[in-house]
Structures are given as structure tokens and as C-alpha cells.
TrEMBL record:
Lineage: Eukaryota, Metazoa, Chordata, Craniata, Vertebrata
UniProt keyword annotation of Membrane present: yes
Name under which the protein is recorded: GDP-fucose transporter 1 isoform X1
Gene assigned in the entry: SLC35C1
Main location: membrane
Entry keyword set: Membrane, Transmembrane, Transmembrane helix
GO MF entry, a single one: GDP-fucose transmembrane transporter activity
A single BP term in Gene Ontology: GDP-L-fucose salvage
Family: Belongs to the TPT transporter family. SLC35E subfamily.
Protein's UniProt keywords contain Phosphoprotein: no
Amino acid sequence: MNRTPLKRSRILRMALTGALGASAEGESGQEKPFLLRALQIALVVSLYWLISISMVFLNKYLLDSPSLRLDAPLFVTFYQCLVTVLLCKALSLLATCWPGTVDFPSVRMDMKVSRSVLPLSVVFISMITFNNLCLKYVGVAFYNVGRSLTTVFNVLLSYLLLKQTTSFYALLACGVIIGGFWLGVDQEGEEGTLSWVGTLFGVLASLSVSLNAIYTKKVLPAVDGSIWRLTFYNNVNACVLFLPLLLLFGELQSLATFDKLDSAHFWGMMTLGGLFGFAIGYVTGLQIKFTSPLTHNVSGTAKACAQTVLAVLYFEETKSFLWWTSNMMVLGGSSAYTWVKGLEMKKAQEELIPREGEKGEMGV
């Protein structure tokens, strides 16, 4: 039986309504065994954790390793964008050659579409650059707290740009996140490991992530709602825009004097970073497909907790009780916000269904 590939946007809607499971059961004619479904979910969640955590540690190595001594964060980000473009093009060609085996949309350069995506690309560049700069100047253990204000900026920008209000309980959860952020900054300062530059980049990264989500919704129609086409155009635009930035910030000169340009290990790690950057988008969608957006957010919070613990153990750091408290406040506030928004969406959906039924009875 031929199946129509699910778009990421459709997967999100179906997951929110709980219809994904029902759809799958209808297509297969029978429900999958519980153990098989549990195994699939465990594998997908594990894959998401593995790729996400590995990507953070690998980027930290590329950006701030004493053994590497590469002071070119923009070049690292540019190269990862280039790898993503090449992967998108390669998968598109494979899908054309073997349509039944590889499922990937056709991607080709269209200057009109590229110009439509350009505003998002500027925000996208800011997001990935500030993320990497934050990681360069702060430790992996503090990275989660340093860029923890994304949820707060989501609420603020939703009100300023979209005039959407937020419930009291959701605002209370945001207050906990802000408190955890400030306590974390205070404790980093007490331990003498605080980087104000890195913290500023973390705040800017949080703002950029929020703006990226808003602009993504506006730009998606230009690429027919395809996340992968948007990924392709975003990264093509980013590669072009990064070139003058590399010249402006003197990174081309830094690369010219870098002593590992002929190292296969260096380019292998750089390419691996690009592969992880591409893969994180896929496994994120996969985790949402097999669970739900709410479960994905909970999984992301738990992953951040595990990542922090691993970083403290790996780098053999000693942290105070209040430092750990700040992390728990950020993670707890994020989980509470996700839970509150999930309940609100469920309630809104339950209220919408009877209204639609009433309209149907009235013949409207």
C-alpha cells in the first residue's frame, strides 16, 4: 500500500490532537504490540539524547579546546551550514534516483524563494552564532542556564508582536526560570567562573531562538510548508552571509595561521559537527512523531539535566548546592511551563469540539 509522506507540520498537529496513533492504526489495520511501540519510543528518545548531547560537547571542543586553539567561531558555524546544504542536496538527488527508498523533497536554488527566506536567515544566523559564542565562553555545565530565557522571550514576543496574553500559572513558571537564571549567574560569579560575555551571548541566543520560531511560521508558506526546503534555503543564505562576516571579524587571517588545516582529524571533527547539526532537526521531528510535542519538551528538559551532570563529571568540576538549585529552578520552571501550556491546549481543544458539533447540527 502506498503511503503519503507526513509533513512535519501535519505531524505536529496530529500529535497535538492524539490522532497520530489512530492514523497509524487505521493504516496498518491493527495496533502495534505495546513492547514494540515502547522499544521504538525508547530508541528514538535515546537517539535524540545521544545526538543532542554529543553535538554540544563536540562544538565545545571545536570552539574552545586548548589542544585545538582555533579562534574562529564564525568559521565553525559557516562550515556546519555548508555541510547541511551539501547533505540536503545529496538526499534530494538520492530521492530522485530512488524515489521508493529515500524520502526527501526536491531542493533547487530559486532566487525568489531565497529572498523570501532572507529575513529568517538573518535571525537564523544570529541564533546559531550566538549559541556557539555562548558555548565558547561558558562551560557546558552552565550552558543550559546561560541560554534558559527562551521561554521567557517566547511569552514576551508573543505579547508584543502577536498580542497574545499568557495565563498566570505560565507567567509564574517564567518567574521561576528567571529566578533560576539569576541565581545561576550569581553562583558562577561566586565560583569565579562567570563570563559576562558568554552570558550576554546566551541571552541573545535565547532571544534569537524565539524570533526564529516566529519568523519560521511566517516564511514556511514560501517553501510550501516543507521544513527540509526551509533548512536548505536557510543554510544556503547563511553560507553567503557568513563570507563577509569572516572577513570583517578577521577569521580568515586566523585560519591562515592555524596549524591544523592539513589535519584529517580536525576536518573529520568539523564534518561530524555538521552531520550532528543536520541530524538534530531530523531526530527532533522523529521524537515528536513517536511521542508528542509535550513529551518532546519534557524529554528535552531531562536531556538538559543529564547533559549538565555529564559536563560536571567529565570536566571534574565541583559545584555548590545553590548552583545545583539554580539548574533545578530552570529545569523545573521549563517543565512547569510545558505542563501548563499542554493543559491549556487540551482545554481549548475540548471546548472547540462541542462548538463544531453545534454548528454541524445547525447546518452552519
